[in-house]
Amino acid sequence: MRELLTVEEYSEELLRLVTGSAGAEQVAVRDSVGRVLAEDVVSRVSIPVFDNSAMDGYAVRYDDIWSPLVPLRVVGDVPAGSRDDPEAAFGECVRIMTGAALPTFADTVVPVEQTQPGPDGDVVFLAVGLRGAHVRRAGEDVPQGALVARAGQEVTPGLVGALAAVGATEVSVRPRPRVAVCATGDELVADGARLRRGQIYESNSVVVATSLERHGAEVRTVGLVGDEPQRLVAYLDGLRETCDLIVLTGGASVGAYDVVRDVLSERAGGVFRHVRVQPGKPQGWAVWNGTPVVSLPGNPVPAVLSVEAFVVPMLDRMLGRSASPSYTARAGV
User: Measuring CA to CA, which residue among 139, 132, 161, 135 is closest to residue 149?
Assistant: First the structure.
């Protein structure tokens, strides 16, 4: 009986076929979602950049509101974005908006909801909170020079926001691995073509290609080859030095028309395994003209599962990605 490898054992075989990229390229932060950082990113500024108000209200000296119902004279306004730094004597305050810079004289903000109008334009404070209340201090979220993202981290929409907030306009990222995807089988027909008896529309290459793109690959070509060995050989030879990885679906079992297994075994020392996973037991790999080739099952479900289990970890290593997003589902037996 053929030995069954565990998922981990077979994955280790595949990982030995690829290495991490030492290259890097600069991209705009807004174009970096899904890319993998090649360098650490540190903050150019503190976040918040300056002491500012967390509420609409009044900027005060805490010592001026030592008890409730104390009236203060309003001597100015500080809207968000204002460059003004108004002064206020003891017994005076300024109206301030959320996000506005805290005036130098003030140490506390009282929300407008805790005040009421007083005589002659004064404002009366109904409650006395803590000193420093409702003030966001400079650098309390991110100090200047702090690490914002690590090399090997995949950029998410949330991280893009953080990068923009700390002043980054470009980031250094790893080049996308160049991948070719090809489905095999005489029974497969390209989308839109007329179906004849015994034929079905080919879908594996589309699903595999889009899945690999979602995980950071640059899919250079998506092909379809029938069960003729010379056509598969010509296809593989045509990819010389244009790809970092080739992914084939179908033809990897032990049937009379399993062309992928025959061609890779005879011409590239192909290694074919049975892996302890169902569906998706037949798996294989080879190296064609120096390029790793991964052979996946032809059935759509195990093909997609095999991409996640075996090909995505290869992309992780090629990209130097610290961890690829994982998905968990509950299954009944």
Answer: 161
